[in-house]
Design a protein that fits this description.
Strand content: 15-25%
Shape: elongated
Order of helices and strands: HEEHEEEEHEEHEEEHEHEHEEHH
Number of helices: 9
Strand order of the largest sheet: 12-11-13-10-14
Largest sheet: 5 strands, mixed
Distance between the termini: 26 Å
Radius of gyration: 21 Å
């Protein structure tokens, strides 16, 4: 999602595997591969060889780069949160960013996090117009977004779904129809409005999900809707004031990294996600889940929280010797 960006059936032409195949095909067509000439009798035979990791870093513009600039959300407990210390950030998306950055050759101190709004994720522009290299900001894959200029999604790194939170004293909500004529807050430009709006809710949008939660706590709106894992973080932060409701919308939200128009960077990000998903010795994703998402279960029992395993990651056309790209 992102912040509650709901993927409807109309947005999807197939299963996630089909979308991954499409993205892999785009990469193979767009990436600059190495052309090799082999002498044969009477001429040369040309064939194309997959790039090395070093080739990809060169093509991605990473060689000599001093910092990696990443657009993230900064107001979501457990996902992406600006901490009181200057320049300090925490959350699952932050850890995923650091995992990718490390494989790209950047130290943690070389990663600059920039707050990014929903509508700017496709533009790859953070606060104050800062251009970012990557967007790791609860950005859900949809077919509509995949067709947008400036959007190229990696393999998914988290699966969740849409839900609703209310104040603690609210009656249980089991379906979107119960929100008819109720004032419900979500994010501007978010597709999470679809199901709830169709049920007759009065939508009241804000620029940040934290603003929605503040208005909910103040009694200005009756509910907030977005991705379940985002809402779970706020419920965990206000366990005596907020309640979480599963409204039985089972279409998955698959969060992915946007690499913009940088095909080589896309391949490198996917390589990290492939290793993370398939190599039993690589526990960085699992450690991020245990650190940030598992604790949410205490205050969100029975809700639609993410599975504790990384989604399937596509294979990457890269040349290594010996091979370091694991088979799943």
């Amino acid at each position: 999602m992102a912040e509650g960006e709901r993927t409807t059936d109309a947005d999807r032409d197939g299963e996630p595997r089909g979308r991954r195949t499409t993205r892999l095909r785009r990469w193979r067509l767009a990436a600059l591969l190495l052309a090799v000439a082999v002498p044969l009798a009477g001429g040369y035979w040309w064939y194309r060889e997959a790039p090395t990791v070093d080739d990809l870093k060169q093509q991605a513009g990473l060689k000599g780069k001093q910092e990696l600039v990443v657009g993230i959300k900064t107001d979501m407990p457990g996902i992406g949160l600006r901490d009181p210390a200057p320049g300090a950030y925490s959350g699952f998306d932050v850890d995923i960013t650091r995992m990718i950055a490390a494989d790209l050759g950047f130290q943690a101190s070389d990663v600059r996090f920039v707050e990014i709004q929903n509508e700017d994720r496709s533009r790859m522009r953070g606060a104050d117009g800062v251009l970012v290299d990557l967007v790791v900001a609860t950005y859900s894959i949809t077919d509509r977004r995949e067709g947008m200029r400036g959007v190229t999604f990696s393999s998914p790194y988290l699966e969740t779904e849409q839900s609703v939170i209310t104040r603690k004293d609210h009656e249980p909500i089991r379906e979107a129809a119960q929100l008819r004529d109720r004032r419900v807050c979500t994010l501007s430009t978010s597709t999470s409005t679809d199901a709830v709006s169709a049920a007759g809710a009065v939508m009241d949008n804000s620029n940040n999900i934290s603003e929605c939660v503040t208005r909910l706590l103040a009694g200005e709106v009756e509910a907030v809707t977005t991705d379940a894992v985002i809402l779970a973080g706020f419920v965990s932060a206000h366990p005596d004031e907020l309640a979480h409701h599963d409204i039985a919308l089972e279409t998955p939200e698959l969060w992915a990294v946007n690499t913009g128009d940088n095909a080589a960077l896309l391949a490198l990000v996917n390589l990290t996600l492939r290793r993370s998903a398939c190599d039993p010795a690589d526990q960085r994703w699992e450690e991020a889940f245990e650190r940030h998402l598992r604790p949410m279960l205490e205050h969100n029992p029975g809700e639609a929280l993410p599975l504790d395993r990384q989604p399937e990651a596509e294979d990457v056309d890269v040349r290594t010797w010996p091979s370091t790209v694991p088979d799943c």
